[in-house]
Specification:
Number of domains: 1
Oligomer: single chain
CATH class: Alpha Beta
CATH superfamily: Alpha/Beta hydrolase fold, catalytic domain
Shape: globular
Number of strands: 8
CATH architecture: 3-Layer(aba) Sandwich
Number of helices: 10
Radius of gyration: 15 Å
Strand content: 15-25%
Helix content: 40-55%
CATH topology: Rossmann fold
Structural class: alpha/beta
Length: 220
């Protein structure tokens, strides 16, 4: 029997962001939203990946494959490090968290370069999700994630890790994804199409990787 799957939306996004991926999943799955990641945030809520990783752990019912997208990859990695009993494997889609390129100027340039190929398809999809999460919550969560060093944290993960990116993704470039795979003793995959939203633009391929992670032997 396949291990269940927990999917965490990326920054500002909601369950809809995984629509084209879950269409192709046959294993049980559950989408969990968090403040800044599908939900608005209270003024005093801690939106750092460490705190949100703890909040995610409270919502997971059984050992699962955790799937993150973009900045939520930082959250699911924190959960895997601090609550390994809840995590069977990790699938990281287009992960951020490289503090070597954490300036707002660099991030904006990379975001614009990555977004151009996908804007016509995605602007109608993501706008309502951002509106629901609210711009203030997104901005606060983005600032908290900007200072989180994923490369340092991922070395402490002890479950299988699969990392996937689209060919045209400048926010999560091939060199960064390969570095994370080496640090976690995982695997890195670059898809032949797509950019920073592979969970929407490359749903069947991402779903296949999730399915494979769900059938991997349990961690020892």
């Amino acid at each position: 029997m396949s291990t269940p799957v927990v999917l965490v939306p990326g920054l500002g996004l909601g369950p809809e962001s995984y629509a084209k991926t879950v269409e192709h999943l046959t294993t049980p799955y559950h989408v969990i939203t968090l403040p800044g990641y599908g939900e608005p945030a209270g003024a005093r809520e801690d939106l750092h990946p460490e705190a949100l990783g703890a909040a995610l752990a409270e919502k997971i019912r059984e050992r699962s494959v955790l799937v993150g997208h973009s900045a939520s990859c930082q959250i699911v990695v924190e959960t895997a490090v601090n609550h390994p009993e809840l995590v069977h494997a990790l699938v990281l889609a287009a992960p951020t968290g490289d503090i070597r390129m954490s300036s707002w100027v660099d991030r904006t340039v990379r975001w614009l370069g990555s977004a151009v190929p996908e804007v016509p398809k995605l602007i109608r999809a993501v706008t309502p999700q951002y509106a629901r999460t609210t711009i203030p919550a997104i901005a606060r969560a983005a600032e908290a994630a900007r200072h989180h060093d994923l490369a340092a944290i991922i070395t402490r993960v002890r479950v299988p890790v699969v990392i996937v990116r689209g060919k045209h993704d400048l926010i999560s470039p091939a060199e960064w994804v390969q570095r994370l795979a080496e640090l976690s003793h995982g695997e890195a995959r670059t898809l032949e199409t797509g950019s920073h939203m592979p969970i929407l633009t490359n749903g069947p391929e991402v779903a296949a990787l999730i399915q494979r992670a769900a059938t991997m032997p349990p961690p020892t």
